[in-house]
Amino acid sequence: MTTIRLYNTRTRRKEDFAPLDPENVRMYVCGPTVYDRAHLGNARPVVVFDVLYRLLQHVYGPDHVTYVRNFTDVDDKINARAAESGRAIGEITAETTQWFLDDMAELGALKPDHMPRATQYIPQMVAMIEDLIAKGHAYEAEGHVLFAVDSWREGYGKLSGRTVDDMIAGARVEVAPYKRNPMDFVLWKPSDEDQPGWDSPWGRGRPGWHIECSAMAYELLGESFDIHGGGNDLMFPHHENEIAQSCCAHPEGDFARVWMHNEMLQVEGKKMSKSLGNFFTVRDLLDQGVPGEVIRFVFLSTHYRKPMDWTAEKAREAEKTLRKWYAKAAQGVGTGQPHIAVVQALADDLNTPLAISELHQLYLADDVATLRYTLQFLGLLAADLPDWVSGPTFDLSILGDMLSEERSRAMKNKDFSEVDRLKALLIDAGIEVRMRREGVELVPGPDFDPAKLESLK
Ligand code: AMP
Ligand code: ZN
After folding, report:
1. Which ligand approaches the C-alpha of residue 213 most closely?
2. pLDDT tens for residues 229-285?
3. ∠ at Cα 387 (439, 295), nearest 5°?
4. Direct distance between the N- and C-terminal alpha carbons of the chain, in angstroms, rounded to an integer
5. Ligand 1, atom 4: closest residue by C-alpha
């Protein structure tokens, strides 16, 4: 069996992955707060952990992995969106949830096994909070319930490697008169008439953000599970607080064994932000005609623990590569095993850039069936040959590059049959083929008929 190695934020080391139960490998990933379209950065953890999910399924069997990713559908940003738009909260969260699923499906992301919504787990959150109070880890103050970090000084801050005192010195924490320690965080807060609220032993209110993941992970995965993931912006305070809640409520368990964090996404070298005007959603890109698989490929080309830079140039290059690979892969049948070198690259802490260079090799090796199956294993080539490959955006310069590459190969192999075939096809489609030493230029003539290029499949 392939040994998977994963970098564990908690131990700051790459470790051999050994699941608690190989029959049921369990992973929890923090999902989106649903009030708006997912921006491109939100898609990064989705793709990263989708690759891991696929790898785990490959190694342990498709029925032996449980992947949970939540939807945060109770949050003050959602309340604000409802207030400013005059729409019902439920309508906004339902619509945004569906958008998220549609957009992520375009990126080739499989659906997790469970996608719990926070509002479906309020009683479990209330029970966990009651338990934390009973165990002396939380206290009620002015309608709020707070987690007392001083009750767990030995564990709080371990993930991000800081002590409570460091955190107080460095953080901009909300100082509230009812907090015993400025780092204490909210488990439950009171709701006004016009805010969503549920009855609780502390009056009508709503949960804090962190408790939802602790409660849902416990319900769906138990007190100990294998992997917890999310963006590294969540490490503190969100994940630190999840750990405190879960480990104090269920001291018999370890909560999550391996913590994995993806680095952030940037755009053309700059942080993606609304104020810089470089903020866009996944849907914006799809609407501009960038295929979802191209977005996925660009993501895969950077290792998940490195900051990733989105550039238009990378998207163009990715499109070119995929067209080339797809055209070849489409000639094969899609069963078999993924290429071993690709699986091994992923097993080494999800080394997706290495997996891509292995694919480049595989493309040259002419093993069409393996190429096809490996692309599908990576979440690419979802359809036999996606429309965009032969669709109206078909870029002749890419075909020219393909032909020029074929020519180089032909010169090595002394076999020009493929070059001749392609050339004849292009000419038949009404294209003038100018073969020069520097490259191949394709010029559409008056009789150019793009439909005839379909047979390039
Ligand atoms: P949020 O809805 O902001 O809680 O984010 C949902 C997920 O997207 C979390 O796992 C975040 O860490 C992740 N995320 C947010 N912004 C970025 C970004 N710029 N790059 C990568 N991941 C991000
Ligand atoms: Zn979470």
Report:
1. 2
2. 999 999 999 999 999 999 999 999 999 999 999 999 998 888 787 777 788 999 999
3. 75
4. 36
5. 32
Residue in 67, 178, 204, 195 with CA at minimum distance from that of residue 122: 204
Kindly report the pTM of this predicted structure: 0.86
Ligand 1 midpoint to CA 41 (Å)? 6
The alpha carbon of 241 and the centre of ligand 2 are apart by a number of angstroms equal to 9
Cβ < 6 A, ligand 1 pocket: 30, 32-33, 41-42, 44-45, 230-231, 233-234, 262, 264-265, 272
CATH class of 289-389: mainly alpha
- Report the alpha-carbon distance of residue 397 to residue 320 in Å, rounded: 9
335-386 confidence digits (pLDDT tens) = 789 999 999 999 999 999 999 999 999 999 988 999 999 999 999 998 777 7
SS3 category, 72: strand
Domain boundaries along the sequence of the chain? 7-265, 289-389, 392-456
Domain 7-265 class, CATH top level: alpha beta
Ligand 2 ion: nearby residues, β-carbon < 5 Å = 30, 213
Lookup result for tokens 């709080």: 156
Residue whose CA lies nearest to ligand 1 atom number 11: 231
Atom of ligand 1 nearest to the CA of 31: 6
